[in-house]
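This follows on from our talk about sequence and fold. Go ahead and set the record down below:
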Amino acid sequence: MTDPNPRMHQIVERLGSARILVAGDLMLDEFIWGRVSRISPEAPVPVVEVTSESYYPGGAANVARNVRELGAATRVVGVAGADAQGDRLIELLDAAGIDTTGVLRDPSFSTTVKTRIIARHQQVTRVDRERHVTLTAAQTEFVASRLEQAVDAVDAVIVADYGKGFLSQPLADRIGRKVRGAGKILAVDPHPHTSLVWHDATVIKPNRREAFLEAGVAPNVPDELPLEDRPLLEAARRLQERWRPQSLLITLGSRGMLLLENQAPPRHLPAYAKDVFDVSGAGDTAISVLALALAAGATPGEAAELANHASAIVVGKLGTATVTAAELAASIARS
């Protein structure tokens, strides 16, 4: 049988040959799994009987995990505390084959931990243990120098901003100059609370809420037809004007994605997801596949399409999940 989409399958096959550096806020994701059989007599809340616990890299570390899962050589740059949570995070990354020599372990830093309690395949609650800090000049110099040393040996750099203090405008400027000066791909997943300006990015990927906050546009009830959603299009226009990226990809959840390339008309990519179990980490998967595909020679439209497929796969899984090349290929074949 003739392959109906050989080009996309060829890109998927090349994903594993890319070399990627991920920089950003590193976190540890903790999952407490259990079952609910009664309501607490102390308050109208469920009592969760714990059956197991699991840990995964979170934040920018989860982006690195997604990249590595697709076979690419992966490095990570960031800061983690010299604490037990930081130890566990580094162990998880090392076990996955991710280069952690660019991670600064600092005793003054507290590793961010997000704990999700899951019962009957539903998230009951989430507990965040974090301390918002701004990197010192010495910490910034460490991570910037490690990133600059590694850029020539990679094909793309992904910056994953979660607003925890890793990124500042001076660091963003330094990353942009170095990455684009070296002729490499720069993919950015921004955070509106940091509100950084990126003038050298290949692609920037906010979600809908982030795009509205960053653009200063009042959010509206999403239009069923994104190409007729005037507030969304206005937010996109403002972001293009502010950031001037080669491509802007706004993820829209159940409504798919909106892609804008330079002066081309906006393009809507409908969502592929059928069953949504957990949206945790879906944005991490999207930026990972987006950057990998560009590094593998995809056009922005092809890269966005692959990221759309990957997002549909990962929201059908429970927990902080990843996708494989085989799953991507199967999703392309079904479409």
Remarks:
- The first strand starts at residue 19 and ends at 24.
- The chain has one domain: 14-334.
- The chain has a mean pLDDT of 93.
